[in-house]
Amino acid sequence: MGELINIFIKSAFIENLALSYFLGMCSYLAVSKTVKTAFGLGLAVIFVLAITMPINWAINTYLLGEGGLFGTDLTFLRLILFIAVIASMVQLVEMVVEKYSPSLYNSLGIFLPLITVNCAILGGSLFMVSKEYGFAESVSFGLGGGFGWFLAIIAIAAIREKIRYSDVPAPLRGLGMAFLLTGLMGLAFMSLMGIDLAAFN
Amino acid sequence: MAEAAVAKNQGMTFGKNERKLLVDPLSTNNPITVQVLGICSALAVTTGMKNSLVMAIAVVFVTMFSSLITSALRNSIPKQVRMIVQLVIIATLVTIVELTLKAVSYDSYKQLSVFIGLIITNCIVMGRLEAFAMGNDPYRSTLDGIGNGIGYGIILMAVAFVRELFGKGELFGYKIIGSSSEYAVNTAADGSWMGWYQPNNLMILFPAAMFVIAVMIWIHRAWKPQLVDVS
Questions:
Q1: Rounded distance between C-alpha atoms, residue B78 and residue A147, angstroms
Q2: Predicted local confidence at residue B182, as pLDDT
Q3: Is residue B18 included in any domain, yes or no?
Q4: Torsion of CA B106, B110, B111, B117, to 10 degrees
Q5: Is residue B119 part of a domain?
Q6: pLDDT digit string, tens, across residues A46-74
Q7: What is the pTM of this model?
Q8: Which residue(s) pair with B214 in the sheet?
């Protein structure tokens, strides 16, 4: 259990997908103008990461690996299968949410399709493969990574809401400022590298 | 606007409009500094010129062929499943790139690791397919793909130039500034070669890429005021 909490803390704070690997930057910069929309997208990312990660783990282990169903090394199909899983999971999640929770659907609605091409999702799955995680670990990694991304986008959206009232040089307004802020937040998050993970064991 | 003008003039000519397709993405419509596409991979691989060059070539290859293939198939792709079809085309091309790189240069493959795979979700590729290749003929789509790939590559190389030069004092792995023991010919008696420079480790860290791109956007928009964000 301590191991899983470790992975959660590590993926949420120390190896934050958005602020130390800069994954999912396109939607991160485009949807972080207000906290409300950032909240919706952040939730959707947690949701999809936590679902796709275990599925991709199962596919990678039981279908593509040497010891898998076909008995041969099919890892060259990994990219195509992963992206297909992500695209279809996003579609499925969209349909389920629409049926059972229309209010959540209305708040997430437009962001769900965007998530297919959010590199944090595919990047998460690829990191999971390269770090050789097991099933429980990949669930924990998915939740932690999603939570870290959620924190990052909420934080930048809040800062961008405030910075609108500042006197920024015209060429730096909007996009330029968002880049500078993300860089500064990245520096701030680097201080979290000092967390002592052994304390959770 | 350019899209509409191009649609009227079909055929394999290379005139003003075709040149615009190729040149526009290099500056006034640059995918990174203006359209804000494909940032993710731009930041992670720019610690060295060599990795950036490999990445740029890979992206040009993928944008070019995915635009060509999608545009050739555009009339037979049903609207509802077009995203999946595009993703499969892109994923196939990226797999080709990944396997080729693994065979040709295993070192770069190891260093770029997951970021080659992430070309799939690089928004430049998908964005150009949606915005251009789905509505134009294969010849012009290919030009558009090449233009955007190169526009992306230029920014990548520029960021990598600044980061590698000031972060390690090297370019393409060769020592340019800072003390070095490798170049005995140019070295002074105390072993220093332009030893006044101390590499700035901040430039190697991830946040430095953000600062470098922010400064680039600043310069670019100060030079072309029509691009300034009014909101």
A1: 36
A2: 56
A3: no
A4: 110
A5: yes
A6: 888 888 888 988 888 888 777 777 777 77
A7: 0.81
A8: none
Is residue B231 assigned to a domain?
no
- Do B211 and A183 count as a contact with CB atoms less than 8 A apart? yes
Q: Is residue B16 part of a domain?
A: no
ipTM above threshold 0.85: no
From chain A residues 165-194, the ones with a CB under 8 A of any chain B CB are 169-177, 179-180, 182-184, 186-187, 190
CA–chain centroid gap for A135, Å, is 18
Measured between CB atoms, which of A80, A174, A180 is closest to B88?
A80
Both tokens of B214, joined, read: 């922010």
The structural domain count of chain B equals 1
**Contact call for residues B58 and B101 (beta carbons, < 8 A):** yes
B37 CB within 8 Å of a chain A CB: yes
Q: Which of B35, B114, B216, B220 to mutate to test the interface with A (most CBs of A within 10 A)?
A: B114
Enclosing domain of residue B65: 31-226
**Chain A residues touching B206 at Cβ < 8 A:** 19-22, 186
Q: A25–B211: do the CB atoms touch at under 8 Å?
A: no
Phi-psi map region of A176: left, alpha, beta (phi>0 left; psi -120 to 50 alpha)? alpha
